[in-house]
Amino acid sequence: MPDFKKVWEDFLTYSPGSTADVRVFFAPGRVNLIGEHIDYNGGLVMPAALTIGTWLFLRERSDGISRFASQAFPSVSTTNVSAIKKEAQGDFSDYMKGIYHAFAHHGSKHSPAADFYFVSNLPNQAGLSSSAAVELATAYALNTLGHLGYSTLDLVRLSQEAENEFVGVNCGIMDQFAVGMGKASHAMLLNTSNLDYEYIPAEMGQYRLVITNTNKKRQLSDSKYNERRQECETALSKLQAHFPSMIHLVENGEVAPKLDRYLDDEVLIRRTRHVMTENKRVMDATNALKNRQMVEFGKLLNASHESLRDDYEVTGKELDALVEAQWHAPGCIGARMTGAGFGGCTVGLVHEDAIDDFQAQVEQKYRQATGLTPSFYVSDIGEGVREVTEEV
Ligand code: GLA
């Protein structure tokens, strides 16, 4: 937990002069349990919000100027909120400016100006949606202060739009959805083709979710993320020539074993096979979780990792070493990479009595294989974005 007394003092120093009330908002990080790289293919995904996340301290200003800073990036950047151009600077302020821009684009020209100060206990750029947390905290705070009247689901869509159109990362909707709509002790089953969703009690018996950071930095926008999206679009258009009613690549999963009849490119075959089989794994994982069959759930996590490694090729040396170390560690019944991949975090299911031994063994094996030291987070599943002024 951040030292809120200190943060409060830092904020008052950083935001002098104003007499407006200080308001505090919280947006969690998220972990995706299963359903990876299919939220932009109309697939099913099963994320959960975490209890770690990002706090936004904020105080309204009357001069139309917003100022942005954070504990991690203390230098202040300022902007006139009625004149934000669609021009990313390539820095942290893009997330907030992107939200202002998206509100304006949807007709809310008078979002309030404010001093913003962010504090987080989420690792940055580690695949736990630190960016979506900043976006949702901003959107939720402006909506609340300015009485803009958007629902949380609207704010989820708007935040994805800010990320796609302003920041320039072509992500799906899973991260913003999980950060916005999370529910304590529940996983979410989201159908990304129509945004239907269901909360599933995450009753995992004696097993706990352990998130482990490879501590290998990744840059989503620099990574092969957009290339994978492009490959999926190409595969879909080729398949549509044979199956004209197909709208999303996850559909028609029964052709997965005979894709070479319809696709002439070995890479596209593997990408499509991942998408189709992953969607099926999410259905199976939903049944397993509902029936509290955790061993079965764990096997599906392992199969998901193998598919992401071999067919989708988004893991890499560090993620593979970290997951393999977990597969052989005490108390672990399943583990996989989570998020976009190419570095970032893994998620594992570990028996609660074995967590210390598990961590010791994984750390040793991973260090041996890569020279890097992993970080562990045993986080509970928490609520989505909200105001927490009274709690800090
Ligand atoms: C990133 C994106 C998500 C999703 C995952 C992969 O986290 O932001 O939309 O595509 O990668 O499942």
Write a short abstract of this structure.
The protein is α+β, with helices and mostly antiparallel strands and 392 residues long. Helix content is 38%, strand content 22%.
The stretches of 5 or more residues where confidence is low (pLDDT under 50) are: none
* Tally of strands: 12
Q: How big is the Rg?
A: 21 Å
What's the shape?
Answer: globular
Task: List the topology elements.
Blueprint: H1 4-14, E1 22-34, E2 44-61, E3 65-70, E4 77-80, H2 93-105, E5 113-120, H3 130-145, H4 152-167, H5 174-181, E6 186-191, E7 196-201, E8 207-213, H6 225-240, H7 266-290, H8 294-310, H9 317-327, E9 332-338, E10 345-351, H10 355-370, E11 375-377, E12 386-387
Helix pairs in contact: 2-3, 2-4, 3-4, 3-5, 4-5, 6-7, 7-8, 9-10
This protein binds alpha-D-galactopyranose (GLA).
Q: Could you characterize what this model shows?
A:
It contains 10 helices and 12 strands. Helix 3 crosses helix 4, helix 7 runs antiparallel to helix 8 and helix 9 runs antiparallel to helix 10. It is globular, with a radius of gyration of 21 Å. With 392 residues, it is α+β, with helices and mostly antiparallel strands. Strands 1, 2, 3, 4, 5, 6, 7 and 12 form an 8-stranded mixed β-sheet that branches. It has a 4-stranded antiparallel β-sheet with strand order 9-10-8-11. The relative contact order is 0.17. Helices cover 38% and strands 22% of the residues. The protein folds into 2 domains: 203 residues, Ribosomal Protein S5, domain 2, CATH 3.30.230; 178 residues, Alpha-Beta Plaits, CATH 3.30.70.890. The structure holds alpha-D-galactopyranose. Alpha-D-galactopyranose (GLA) binds next to helix 5.
